[in-house]
Design brief:
The complex is a heterodimer of chains A (273) and B (256). Chain A is an all-alpha fold and 273 residues long. Chain A has 2 domains: 46 residues; 202 residues, MetI-like fold (Orthogonal Bundle). In chain A, helix 5 crosses helix 7, helix 7 runs antiparallel to helix 9 and helix 9 packs parallel to helix 10. Chain B is of the alpha/beta class and 256 residues long. Chain B has a single domain, classed as Rossmann fold (3-Layer(aba) Sandwich), CATH 3.40.50.300. Chain B is 35% helix and 26% strand. In chain B, the strands form 2 sheets. Chain B has a 6-stranded mixed sheet, sandwiched between helices. Chain B has a 3-stranded antiparallel sheet with strand order 2-1-4, covered by helices on one side. The longest helix of chain B is centred in the last third of the chain and has 20 residues. Chain B starts with a strand and ends with a helix. The chains are: A mainly alpha (273), B alpha/beta (256). Chains A and B meet through helix 8 and helix 9 of A and strand 5 and helix 3 of B. The structure holds adenosine-5'-diphosphate (ADP) and magnesium ion (MG). Magnesium ion binds next to helix 1 of chain B.
Chain lengths: 273, 256
């Protein structure tokens, strides 16, 4: 079988070898992309057939068509958008608070190393704890409502974020700090001119991890104390055996996670140039 | 000629859990204004420590370090480190004015001066480039300009060329020497490279180890013999100086 050669834009500018390389690369990309689409499509198809032919129990496993139908229904009466909005809002606030609190704490730790040294073991302890264990306690203390859920969202990422940022700040080349001193700068200037800008790439990747963790924390919070939001929908759906709803909510969560990650990637690219 | 720097019985020790390391206990020397002095000595003998003491990054455990200036202002010190440490997120121009920014001196006079320096030493075209787009030698020259924008009275250079390859080192050391001389600066260069010291300095302080002290002060007098600075490396005199210093350092090694 002869594989057709993909078209390359401006092919006449390239040498034979370069053209060959570009064509092979394009073919490879093409294969990967279509492979993914094919996989997803056959998975959905198989699922639907299995449900129709009753190989699986559609009551427990649902089916793509049922889920789509539910999605359209709920979208039309705006209920779903409301729940998505709530979860997004709670995750967003949790994320911003994680970043803000971590920046403040890690900067203080860097500026006053003895304070950092003192608190470090406590943070390591808190960070090694499975954070969802804190959630019931938070609910007892603060009741149900937004603050509780946001606090749950914060509690998953915060300690790790502080530690990571602090370590990044500490890894600044001491010669660079010396440079600032020899140019007549003080410690605050060392932070603003060298330590923070130098930590920016690490800061972005820490943020990327933490936007995901904020979402995890918020969902845990909604499981336990929510009256709205996607976490609430999942728990509610499972309690009343509306498994269409559960699976739909999980799929939407996937989409949200991908979306948030994508946004962070765009911000990262923006900052690089 | 007037004295700009005087070290008087300076002592310095590093303290640690494993004990005290006395780097020097009685260091004396003076530097004259406008001179170019090189400090040569075995590695680990305390050369960097001396510069840190002069720059005020460390305080002597005993003795006095005095800086003199013509007017009443305290003399300013410029420090050039082994690596250029240009900040990769700033373009060259903003790296050059980093010191001015830190000292809140972004006045038209200083900025013009910074631009003039870049123009004068053929670096103006690099202004909008990022450090990663420059060669190692170019970067080191930018680092010197960054130090010069603050108009220091005394320049301290701590093995500023040791991170460069041999070819570049020859070229850049020549350039740096040229820049320092034409800006009329007093310079104190630390190096372990004997030929670099001979090619650049008017005086060489030979240090010896544990505790660190000035073993010998060797004036380098090419001008007296009518040899210009850019030709010194080919001269017989250069070889003589080299042999002299080499022998002294060898003695040092056999003594200890
Ligand atoms: N921070 C430090 N703590 C303890 N000892 C040090 C420290 N810095 C340097 N020393 C010791 O002091 C001596 C002189 O160091 P240094 O001035 O860096 O030498 P040089 O620049 O001539 O190579 C060395 O023996 C080194 O081991
Ligand atoms: Mg040294």
């Amino acid at each position: 079988m002869k594989i057709p050669k993909p078209k390359i834009k401006g092919a006449e500018h390239y040498s034979e070898g370069q053209l060959n390389y570009l064509q092979r690369k394009k073919l490879y990309q093409f294969g990967i992309t279509w492979g993914r689409i094919l996989f997803l499509f056959s998975f959905l198809l198989l699922w639907q057939i299995a449900a129709d032919k009753e190989w699986i129990d559609a009551f427990f496993f649902s089916s793509p068509i049922d889920i789509t139908r539910l999605f359209v229904d709920k979208l039309l009466n705006l209920e779903l958008l409301h729940h998505i909005g709530i979860t997004l809002m709670e995750s967003g606030i949790s994320f911003l608070l994680i970043i803000l609190l971590s920046l403040i704490t890690a900067s203080c730790f860097w500026y006053f190393p003895s304070v950092g040294k003192m608190f470090e073991p406590f943070l390591i302890l808190l960070n090694s704890l499975p954070k969802s264990a804190l959630a019931p306690l938070i609910i007892v203390w603060m009741g149900t409502g937004y603050p509780t859920i946001i606090l749950c969202g914060i509690s998953v990422g915060l300690f790790g974020c502080i530690l990571n940022l602090y370590q990044t700040f500490q890894q600044t080349d001491p010669e660079r700090l010396k440079l600032i001193t020899t140019l007549g700068g003080n410690k605050f200037q060392a932070f603003t001119k060298v330590v923070f800008p130098g930590s920016l790439p690490a800061f972005i990747s820490i943020s990327k991890v933490n936007i995901g963790l904020a979402l995890v924390g918020v969902i845990i919070g909604e499981f336990l104390a929510g009256k709205q939001g996607l976490g609430y929908l999942i728990i509610y759906g499972s309690q009343v055996y509306q498994l269409n709803l559960v699976i739909l909510s999980i799929l939407i969560l996937c989409a949200i996670a991908v979306l948030l990650y994508g946004i962070m990637n765009i911000i990262e690219k923006r900052l690089k140039c | 000629m007037s004295v700009i720097l005087k070290l008087d019985q300076v002592a310095y020790s590093y303290y640690s859990d494993t004990g005290e390391v006395s780097v020097m206990d009685n260091m004396d020397f003076t530097i004259e204004k406008g001179s170019f002095t090189a400090i040569v000595g075995p590695s680990g003998c305390g050369k960097s420590t001396i510069l840190s003491l002069i720059a005020g990054l460390l305080s002597p455990t005993a003795g006095f370090i005095t800086l003199y200036s013509d007017d009443f202002a305290a003399p300013k010190i410029g420090y050039m480190l082994q690596h250029d440490h240009l900040l990769e997120w700033r373009d060259i121009y903003h790296n050059v004015i980093l010191g001015l920014e830190i000292q809140h001196k972004l006045t038209p006079q200083y900025l013009t001066f910074a631009n003039e320096l870049l123009e004068k030493y053929n670096l103006a075209h690099t202004k909008n480039l990022l450090p990663s787009e420059l060669s190692g030698g170019m970067r080191q020259r930018i680092a010197l300009i960054r130090t010069l924008t603050l108009k220091p009275d005394l320049l301290l250079l701590d093995e500023p060329f040791s991170a460069l390859d041999y070819q570049t080192r020859l070229l850049v050391s020549k350039d740096v020497h040229h820049i320092i001389k034409s800006e009329n600066k007093t310079a104190l260069l630390v190096t372990h490279d004997i030929s670099e010291a001979i090619a650049m300095a008017d005086n060489i302080l030979l240090l010896s180890k544990s505790p660190c002290h000035v073993k010998q002060c060797i004036p380098i007098e090419f001008e007296k013999h009518g040899i210009t600075r850019d030709k010194v490396r080919d001269s017989k005199l250069f070889q003589d100086y080299f042999d002299l210093i080499w022998r002294e350092l060898q003695n040092e090694n056999t003594e200890t």
